[in-house]
Amino acid sequence: MEHPILFINLLLDKLGVHVPAQPHSLAGYLVQPHVTYTWIVMLLLIVLGALAANSVKMVPKGGQNFFEMVITGIEDFMIGITGEEGRFMFPLIASLGFFILCSNYLGVIPGFYSPTANLNTTLACALIVVVMTHVLGVKFHGIKYVKHFMGPVWWLVPLIMPIEIVGHLSRILSLSIRLFGNVFGEELVLAILFFLAGLYLAPVPMMFLGLFTGFIQAFIFCLLSMMYFAGAIEHAH
Amino acid sequence: MKKVGLLTALLVLGFSCVAFAADGDPKSAAVQFFLWSAIAAGLAIAIAAHGCGIGQGMAVRGAVEGIARNPEASGKVTVTMLIGLAMIESLSIYALVVALILIYANPISSAISAFVGLPK
Description:
Radius of gyration of chain B: 22 Å
Oligomer: heterodimer
Number of helices of chain B: 4
Structural class of chain A: mainly alpha
Helix content of chain A: over 70%
Largest sheet of chain A: none
CATH superfamily of chain B: F1F0 ATP synthase subunit C
Strand content of chain A: under 5%
Distance between the termini of chain B: 15 Å
């Protein structure tokens, strides 16, 4: 599918760099929209964080107050799910959450493209979460982490172990495809509505829906990651 | 959009081939692949939306009954309902992804196009 008109692609064309539709080399991959707009999201998040932590006062007000509310809200919510031992995983969850939220909202702006509307980005986020689950399990339980994959009784192991392994592999698929499907479907609906009735401002109600689902999908991704981490940290049956 | 135009043209060819399947039989049978995959993609979304609508309706019913019984817990009930709705919706999204694969990223389509003699 061709992408709609994107600002960075136009900018790169002005600078003389051709953005191929089907990339074949590393340089071709580096100028793809889902890579260049990821840089925009990174820039946005770094600038936002620098602004919020610029002059940290004891009695916060303004931007610092807002961000402190948001961060402590997420942290308390996470401790409620994973328990006190999961506190050190909070930066990963919050970073993923903010990245996915910013990426989802970037696509609603005309002329910009969500990096999460591409399966590569969402697969990367899902792989980070699932690999971290197993790292956490090994870190907290050592070799006894295998007991998480055996059922409650020892004679059901040949049945339960493949089911658990397939379940863990399907977590990668479900996390990535849920986020990708929501954001890409939203962008597809916006493009088609714009093509059908763009002059009558038909995409605008769908943009409101896109704001709503963007927030919900980022929240769901973080919630599921917290639950997977909690499942790896806690003791088996 | 070029792919959509190509698919529509193939559907017209496909339907006419169903009616006049007399000459070049393997090729007309091969073109029907695109016809059936388009029908499958449409049916996938229809059936997924059907099941998703019923499931989400039941989730909202439970949430509304909980709030009616205990209005003070409406915050927690609403958050739980939204989480449940997103989970149910993701099943419909899986069907959407399969439909998109069928229409736009079908791995067999280039082989069949080459066999029939159409451009990829």
